[in-house]
Amino acid sequence: MTVTWEDLGWERVAAGVGRCRLPVWDCTAGLVVGEDAALVIDPGSSLAEGAKVREQARALAGHRVTHLALTHPHFDHVFGAAALTDVEVFGAVGVDAVLTRVRDREEMRADAVRNGLAAETAEEAAQRLAAPGHLVSGEWTLDLGGGRQVLLANVGPGHTAHDLAVLVPGDPEVVFCGDLVEESGEPQAGRDAVPSQWPAALDRLLGLGGEDAVYVPGHGALVDAAFVRAQRDALAVRFGVSR
């Protein structure tokens, strides 16, 4: 019996491309399916959530997950990473230090607990964080087989100093934005944000996807280029960035 995206509560965005909105923090996890490979984008906020994403992705792809992209180093997007074993992991240059430095891991753990994640769950996930095996400084093309290629682009800094976007060519083109774009609330700017560069990062996203792309925010419903432009302009006003 074939499993559909809807069967598992995922949203089909394009052929072989989908996402789910994980509970509690409404964080997006994405999936791109190739002929003999599968890319997960952001595995959630805990090892248990990462394991669930892995198993659902395997069921949807029909084979195991082979690649993982981390859009930025916040707990709700990376704490599930250790649950995906034997995969090639990608992140923006510099994210490796954030995921392995003791003080940064402690801050992620503390942030998770402040936001309601159980202390033991947060501690286990933080301790098992590891540096990605592949660091993207500009752009990196992944071949997932069957003519499916995916472009990983280091588009930050913005929401953090290490923001990675994922472009899936097709009709429509799909851009996974991480938390550079949020639909379900005002974009969050923490201590690690780079506000002066955030509008420019959104310009780079728009350059990747163009006018007709579907943009997948880190939190919230799918949006279009007009929404991304409006959020870029609002961020420029909010942070006093000249355009």
Automatic annotation (TrEMBL):
<feature type="domain" description="Metallo-beta-lactamase">
    <location>
        <begin position="26"/>
        <end position="219"/>
    </location>
</feature>
<protein>
    <submittedName>
        <fullName>MBL fold metallo-hydrolase</fullName>
    </submittedName>
</protein>
<dbReference type="InterPro" id="IPR050855">
    <property type="entry name" value="NDM-1-like"/>
</dbReference>
<dbReference type="InterPro" id="IPR001279">
    <property type="entry name" value="Metallo-B-lactamas"/>
</dbReference>
<dbReference type="InterPro" id="IPR036866">
    <property type="entry name" value="RibonucZ/Hydroxyglut_hydro"/>
</dbReference>
<dbReference type="Pfam" id="PF00753">
    <property type="entry name" value="Lactamase_B"/>
</dbReference>
